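hi! just following up on the protien thing from before. the input was this:
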Amino acid sequence: MNTNSSRRSVLKNILGSAAVISAPMTFSEAFAANEKVLGAELNGKINHSVCRWCYGKIPLEELCQAAVAMGLKSIELQGPDEWPILKKYGLTCAMAWGAGKGINDGFNELKLHDELVASYEAIFPKLKEAGLNNVICFSGNRKGMSDEQGLENCAIGLKRLMPSAEKYGITVTMELLNSKVNHKDYMCDLTKWGVALCDKVGSDRFKLLYDIYHMQIMEGDVIATIKKYNKYFSHYHTGGVPGRAEIDDTQELNYPAIIKAIVETGYKGYIGQEFVPKRPDALASLKQGVTICDIA
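and the predicted 3d structure came back as:
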């Protein structure tokens, strides 16, 4: 899908669905608008990804077609049922899901360890067979528990999981989330807490997902944090602050500078766009976000 004609064909297929175009317009108007979505070829320094849940109104296969046309390499936060669809379009799933009990119930509860360990051990061979190597996990909410106790509990459960993760070459990645706005009571809400957990677990197969949106809300100092703790991060997510909308000049973060700092650490993984488009043309917003992050 690298030629202009094939890229236009992809867009014609996409535009055939009203799900993509939320505002009424003629085909020619829609096509002209979305031709702009494609823009120039990407620079190649960044492996671009997008989080599926932010574009839930667009059927997955149409999102795959749009992602390919834009030069993305991944659609993430997808489970085993979706991986074959991504593969059909030459896409990977840079951060997979399909194990665990969700955000609120995680490794900080000892009583959940047997279930959690079994869940992740069951998905590891599926990940390896699919050619994937990164799966998301969560600390769980505090529920009155101290951060110190939660740290100990998480380490106990994750240490049980590491021999299997190491066997299959899978990195179990705990996401850093804000507990001020979106995920009240979530425990892994500060980089230093997550780093301390990585040190306790003591395996290169346990890392953190540094979500720029969430950590700007919780602690700021994004670039300095990336420079100091980058060895603990296996993945990055974007999002506009405040509001988790487009990452352009309507929000407070300087994403080109942040992405440049990430690249300078030697990071070779994926940058996942995880903002929720507020404009009618969600795909145009996605392309804009990718372009902003596609540093030269």
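The CA atoms of residues 106 and 140 lie 4 Å apart.
Confidence is low (pLDDT under 50) at residues 1-40.
cheers
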